[in-house]
Specification:
Strand content: under 5%
Oligomer: single chain
Distance between the termini: 46 Å
Largest sheet: none
Radius of gyration: 18 Å
Helix content: 40-55%
Length: about 200
């Protein structure tokens, strides 16, 4: 969790590896079900908590903010990654919810034991948070939170995170269809697309 010498580019390059190696217990059937549920999310819905309590969300957001910190560019906090995590656990990743809450409670209890005066992980200083996370960064709670944070940074904004497409801007991704061969030409006349088809 030591951010010294770790560039934002290095972090972004690690996104793919993290997603590929994350130990989340989902089979193909569960993934397909999750994606189907995600497609039913109403675009533009206001950000609100539906699974996490306010105190839980504060701690999860603080963890996410250490995973993708704010520096000269926005991080997980500004991208609203915690709202993606909350929505995911309430809907398309609901099969993870029970274990995640149990792991979160254990995380919070361990933090209070180590820092009784602080009361919560979110109340710790940044240096204290990093020191604590260094000791728990191999736990299932941290592994799952790291994956969900990255998904919340870079997935479609209507899934709850990637507020104002901040994650996409970090990657240099533009949400625009390009109907030029060899990519996209076969979707040019697909019903439902409202895309700029002026590209040649």
């Amino acid at each position: 969790m030591d951010h010294d010498g770790i560039s934002r580019r290095s972090l972004l390059q690690a996104v793919g590896v993290t997603i590929a190696t994350a130990a989340i217990p989902l089979g193909w059937a569960e993934i397909a079900e999750a994606m189907d549920a995600a497609q039913r999310i109403t675009p533009g819905a206001a950000a609100a908590l539906s699974f996490l309590t306010a105190a839980e969300a504060a701690d999860v957001e603080a963890v996410a903010a250490q995973i993708v910190p704010t520096d000269d560019t926005p991080g997980a906090r500004e991208a609203g990654a915690v709202y993606f995590i909350d929505k995911a656990l309430a809907t398309f990743f609901s099969q993870l919810a029970t274990d995640y809450r149990r792991q979160l409670v254990a995380f919070q209890e361990a933090c209070r034991t180590q820092h009784p005066a602080a009361g919560s992980f979110a109340a710790l200083t940044s240096a204290q948070q990093i020191a604590f996370l260094t000791g728990v960064d191999q736990t299932p709670f941290f592994t799952t939170t790291r994956l969900l944070t990255l998904l919340g940074m870079f997935s479609l904004p209507e899934y709850g995170g990637n507020r104002n497409a901040l994650g996409w801007k970090l990657l240099g991704f533009e949400d625009a269809h390009v109907f030029t061969s060899p990519f996209g030409y076969y979707d040019r006349d697909y019903p439902g697309f409202a895309a700029d088809v002026t590209a040649k």
